[in-house]
Amino acid sequence: MAEILVLGAGAAGISAAYHAAKAGKETVLLEKRDRYGGLCDHFHKAGFRFDHAVHFAFSKNEAYSALLEKTDLLAHRPQAYNYEQGRWLKHPVQNNLYPLPVEEKVEAIKSFIERPARRADSNYHSWLYEQFGTVIADRYPARYTLKYWTVPPESLSTDWIGNRLHRPSLEEVLFGAMTDATPLTYYLPEFYYPRRGGFKAIFEPLMEDLELRTGKEVVRIDPARRVVECRDGTFEDFEYLVSSLPLPEITKMIDNAPLRVLKAAGELWATAIALVSIGLKVPQAGDHLWFYIYDQEILPARAHAPYRKSPDNAPAGCSSLQFEIYFSRHKPLPLTSEALLEHVTGSAEKMGLFKVSDLAVTDCRILPYANVVFEKGMQAKRKLVRDYLEQKGILSVGRFGEWDYLWTDQCYLSGKKVENLPCML
Ligand SMILES: Cc1cc2nc3c(=O)[nH]c(=O)nc-3n(C[C@H](O)[C@H](O)[C@H](O)COP(=O)(O)OP(=O)(O)OC[C@H]3O[C@@H](n4cnc5c(N)ncnc54)[C@H](O)[C@@H]3O)c2cc1C
To answer: What spacing in Å lies between the alpha carbon of 45 and ligand 1's midpoint?
Structure first.
């Protein structure tokens, strides 16, 4: 019997299993796929490595920083770009209006000066107006919201924003409208990526002594008898259960879960991503490490260049790009994989990123859970479900276990909460 059984071998599950094992507990980590890593994992195709979407390592946290120190990392300057109708603007656009025609800059600055005062009950759309004025808000972040969150900004709350959107002063907006020599606004001066092995290499030092069982998809949980059942017909007993499985999934697996919990969990929803990955037989693809795309007729919201994160991600003399197309129950994916590949390669050629004749390899795949959506009212449902799991003695961790907009470092810390279990104290 496992003293601590951990479900899901992504960042949170690995961290939970590592910290439990380090404390001397008999620990077993179950993963449904044949590999560990979850969202931090990658795949290979024809000598190219592609992560599961853009991933960089950054943190102000001591424990995670100590983990990062165990890996050979490349440092990058966190300077993103924005693409809109043939123009490239530095990120964030509100600080970098320089490339726009003068009349459009004047209109944007005027509306920034006249932006409404902050209200306590703002939804995300009114919050955007309050921060940037209507012109910048509607032209950039509000349009991006439809592509990234798959719903209009007025249906979102604001409690996920944190330091994700830069709130400029008037001086910053004016400065960035007059020159492109603007400073970085990212909250850290650098972020990092493993020299070798893809983003997931960060977790290798934690895996050494872990008892990881892959191909184990948990389908049923009996908290009273302390046993889980896997799709392959095997059972695992446990004393304590830690789960990083998505809340809407785990609740369906629990014997006799109350209807109100199932209903609340069923109403939580996350976006999914179609990842279109492209390997090129030329040494350069575009000019940027990562960028956002605002044009509505181009389906991807964001793209990045894996070969720029590390040369280890592409064969010598080659380059690569990966595009993210978000969809959900509110905005289904409009194209088949083949049509999506054609759409993305055609759009990228028009954007001047590469020539279709330079393609070496393409791939299209779906990640079913990407971003937890902070729809108004979500928090109460999340609380109900999390309270129920806690009452059943299940520690629910990670991005989809806490049901929060967590970065990898926060998932690492979320898994580390295993140290607070009564049996560990
Ligand atoms: C597009 C995108 C870009 C991101 N970029 C960054 C970045 O630049 N920097 C950063 O720090 N973070 C980034 N993140 C966040 C980061 O990827 C996540 O916070 C983190 O990987 C989540 O880890 P997790 O363990 O909570 O969940 P997951 O990685 O989803 O792990 C859950 C695991 O559970 C397994 N599982 C599911 N169901 C079952 C079952 N029934 N039985 C057994 N196993 C099961 C899954 O296969 C998976 O391995 C990004 C996320 C996204 C979506």
So the answer is: 21
